[in-house]
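RETRY 2/3 - previous attempt timed out on the joint model. Re-submitting the same 210-residue input unchanged.
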Amino acid sequence: MTINQMISEDEVALMHHYICEGIGDAKRLRLLYLVAEQPRNVTELTELLDVTQPTVSHHLRILRERGLVNAERDGTSIYYTLGDPRILEAMNILRSFVADKTQEA
Amino acid sequence: MTINQMISEDEVALMHHYICEGIGDAKRLRLLYLVAEQPRNVTELTELLDVTQPTVSHHLRILRERGLVNAERDGTSIYYTLGDPRILEAMNILRSFVADKTQEA
DNA sequence: TTTATATATTGATAAGTGTCTATATAGAAT
DNA sequence: ATTCTATATAGACACTTATCAATATATAAA
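RETRY 2/3 succeeded.
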């Protein structure tokens, strides 16, 4: 059970930077789920995402800078993986919340 | 343990709407933590947030429309509470991730 | 050293949104 | 009814950012 200690304004700012700005876009959320399934390179991710390659690289940079994904080069390709299992863990909790919300209607 | 089943594009869109748009702002993240501590009315939240009352109401509306907070009237005041414990649960997991990241330096 | 492929960066633009002031609405009290 | 307090809404503006086309960089192969 996690402790609910009062959070400081500074810590909120950090969380905003790492998390809110990190997953604050639908494409990036999708990217996180895709690289959580298996390592994927930029070309694969571009084919799956319906945006241009520079846009994918842009999103990956944002995720990478925050440690939400890791990048590893293999030849000319760069394979991306999930940066931390807690990311998926938290997303799945939120996913179950959303699932309940949308079937409340 | 949560199951990591492939997520559809539609589900990503829903998650983006409920979660990313919901917590995609530092003030709203702060609001969620504040109402998680205890029920608070708009006046209290305004004093704690360093923005105007209409701005607080604006953020609360976004949170309320997504079920991230609940609103209950008591006289002229309206008290806000956390909409679902899973919100805090997920936030705390992400909080621990951010804590680790920021002390890696 | 070219050539080809994969990824990243730059600069521009359009769309979205957080914030404010001003105003409206709702409930309680006189 | 009027006044007061609490909250919500409307409209405007500044700022951010997602996206694209064009270009640069990096690795591998010929």
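The CA atoms of residues 21 and 62 of chain B lie 8 Å apart. Closing ticket.
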